[in-house]
# Entry
Amino acid sequence: MAWSQDEERMLLQIERHLIDEDPRLAARLESFNERVQRRENGRRGREPGKEGSRSRGRLRRSTVIIMISWLLIATLIATLLIMVLRHDAAALPL
# Structure
């Protein structure tokens, strides 16, 4: 649905007043709008069948960090258990 000329004029006035009152906010909003538009254009440029392939094929950084942390914890526990069991076996008299 298209805006009427009155509505467009009022929106432009509001925009001008906001820019005059808070230029930092206007710059932030403009930057945000540009990022959203770039993201939308990037999604449109992809092939229809490959929309989710990037997210499926590549793990997020936080997921990788969590996986590595769990691997290190499991390795530490296994090492401690091996050390304790070998020490107990060596300490038992035959």
Notes: The longest helix spans residues 61-91.
